[in-house]
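note to self: dont lose this again. the chain is below, predicted strucutre after it. 293 aa total, dont forget to put it in the shared folder this time
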Amino acid sequence: MHDTDTVTDPDFDSLVPGQSVGRRTFVGAALAAGFALSVRPALGQDVIHTPADGLLAGEVRIVAPDGVALAAYRARPAGDGPVPVVLVVQEIFGVHEYIRDVCRRLARAGYLAIAPNLFQRQGDPSALASVAEIQAGIVAKVPDAQVLGDLEACAEWAQTQGGDGRLGITGFCWGGRIAWLFAARHAGLKAAVAWYGRLDGTPSANTPTHPLDVVEALQAPVLGLYGAKDQGIPVSDVEAMRERLAAAGKRGELVLYPDAGHAFHADYRPSYRAAEAADGWARLLAWFRANGL
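---
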């Protein structure tokens, strides 16, 4: 890709304190290569671009429990010193440029960030032209058990690649739901941050439980970041999660942004809200630090 207008912007720098984070303006479809076909940035839209200089960043392969060589994007500070690990769970659009950039932001904050391709066996969502095609053709076919097993394998792999034994997780939309479920599974998890992850739903063979069903099993504190204007996640679900966390005596925090809708952190989409995204990112970093990560 070509930078048409890369500048340093204080609003963007605040997302990764002490690091330079630029803006990339898209002036044509060819320049949006790397983003999923169905959600490429619009003409003239600025997105956050985090450079990889000073980082060890790129694709790796991790052996999954079923023997599949799982593709993943990994970013970490350069050097040999051990660092804490953060698993990054994709949206339905796969491990495209936005998710890779999130990994680089985390790496610049001192983490080994890993985003595995959790749809690898079912297909490539980045090549599909509509959300409906992705949902029906790929997402509906992905079992939670497979996803959670893949994340466990990534956590184990990270400890052989410079991880220091401390583990966190964050996820966006589809991945936000998975972050809640992983927090109810992994006993060694330090903290989780779920960005507008669905909290309730109809059970199915592939998705037998939802976050509201697993509160008592949570192994780590969870920060949930939600928009009050989200058309897919009612405020009543957020309030229900607050109540269940309190009733179960589990540590967690639910932040509800009154003027935000879904995907408010996704800087490449029209739903992006810079103030709420920056506040949420600052909360993510603080949550990880406060919980030993």
